[in-house]
Design goal:
The complex is a heterodimer of chains A (221) and B (137).
Chain A (H helix, E strand, L loop, with lengths): L1 H17 L10 H30 L2 H8 L4 H26 L17 H28 L8 H33 L5 H31 L1
Helix pairs in contact in A: 2-6, 2-7, 4-5, 4-7, 5-6, 6-7
Chain B lengths: L1 H8 L1 H17 L7 H27 L28 H18 L1 H19 L10
The chains are: A mainly alpha (221), B mainly alpha (137).
Chain lengths: 221, 137
């Protein structure tokens, strides 16, 4: 029995090696699955937006404004810019992964010859910058007396931006896994390229959600 | 993949319309427009569009599948369906750690301290199962 099982698993393994994630006439189930899951994530954020707008509607306008005016718009705008640009660097990483180039071909500052590792590492740093900025922003707001339990505005502000921040944090972990898979592979193949592509889907999604959040929370206020 | 694409994208105008009608309808009540329903119906429209649009892009990149042609034979669908790991225990380990973590949220935070190390081990094991041992490549 165990001999048969061993046979089965080696046969499957051999098949996956020669033909990882690519068939000409089938959609890649990993990518489609990621998109369907991200669509469900959209509904998660829909609930957060719904919560935000409901509290905004039932709260007296001056009470809302007294809290919302504490936000530091220029600081958050810089943070947002970094996050949006990180989507660009992430896409550069995907293009490198699609030409199966894990490493740079030139010097470190010759970014036009960068591979997936360099672009994704830069994306990671930019995402980490965003999280760092958000921690600073939270510290500042708590200092000014706005906490998750201080007021209804505090609750919805920290819940919406906090859940988004957790998603960015999850994305950073995903980047580590992506780089780990790529470093573990002697031959950079479809397995690693698919990972890069679906992590980028997630990253772009979280980025777009932030643009919506930024518009609603900081611009519309 | 036309049928899947249409199935999803067809929902978009429907939900956009429904969101508009809902918003206007509730705007005429004493409480004013109702944001939960309006936003969620609107974003259901975005959700189906997202899936439909992705399927449309995918359809352009791949050849026609046997399902898409009326004259296909069963045998045309033979071959790889995707990469699956029929022997893998890692998803079970991840699900177990996630269940333990949620138990922690419900019962007591200290359980989370047990769940997190298990979760990290399970996640790392699952992510790297095709990258090490006999599957190293």
């Amino acid at each position: 029995m165990s001999a048969i099982m061993a046979d089965v698993s080696t046969a499957t393994a051999a098949a996956t090696h020669t033909h990882q994630h690519v068939t000409v006439n089938r959609p890649n189930p990993v990518s489609v699955g990621t998109i369907v899951w991200l669509a469900s994530e959209l509904m998660f954020f829909a609930a957060l937006f719904a919560m935000y707008f409901t509290v905004r509607q039932v709260l007296p306008a001056d009470e809302w404004a007294a809290q919302a005016d504490k936000l530091n718009i220029p600081f958050s705008a810089v943070n947002t810019t970094v996050l949006v640009l990180s989507s660009v660097t992430c896409q550069m990483g995907v293009l490198a992964a699609e030409r199966f180039q894990p490493q740079r071909k030139g010097r470190i500052w010759a970014f036009w010859s960068w591979g997936m590792h360099e672009w994704m590492a830069l994306t990671y740093l930019m995402g980490a910058f965003f999280i760092g900025g958000q921690v600073l922003e939270y510290a500042e707001l708590v200092h000014e007396g706005l906490t998750i339990s201080s007021s209804p505005y505090g609750s919805v502000f920290f819940l919406t931006t906090g859940f988004h921040g957790l998603h960015v944090l999850g994305g950073l972990i995903a980047f580590l896994f992506l780089l780990g898979r790529s470093f573990a592979a002697r031959r950079f193949g479809h397995h690693e390229a698919t990972t890069a592509i679906v992590v980028s889907y997630y990253w772009h999604f979280v980025d777009v959600v932030w643009i919506a959040l930024f518009f609603v929370i900081y611009i519309l206020r | 993949m036309k049928i899947e694409t249409r199935l999803f994208i067809a929902g978009t105008p429907l939900f956009l319309l429904a969101a508009g009608v809902y918003a206007l309808w509730t705007a005429n009540t004493a409480q004013g427009w109702e944001p939960v329903g309006t936003l969620c119906i609107l974003l259901v429209g975005a959700m189906v569009f997202m899936v439909g649009f992705y399927l449309m892009l995918t359809a352009k990149r791949i050849d026609e599948r046997p399902e898409d042609t009326e004259h296909a034979e069963i045998a045309d669908g033979a071959g790889d369906q995707g990469v699956f790991a029929p022997w893998s225990w890692w998803p079970l380990a991840i699900a177990g750690s996630a269940a333990l973590a949620f138990l922690g949220l419900a019962v007591g935070w200290w359980i989370l301290g047990i769940a997190i190390p298990f979760g990290i081990i399970a996640l790392v094991g699952w992510v790297f199962e095709f990258s090490r041992g006999q599957h190293a490549h």
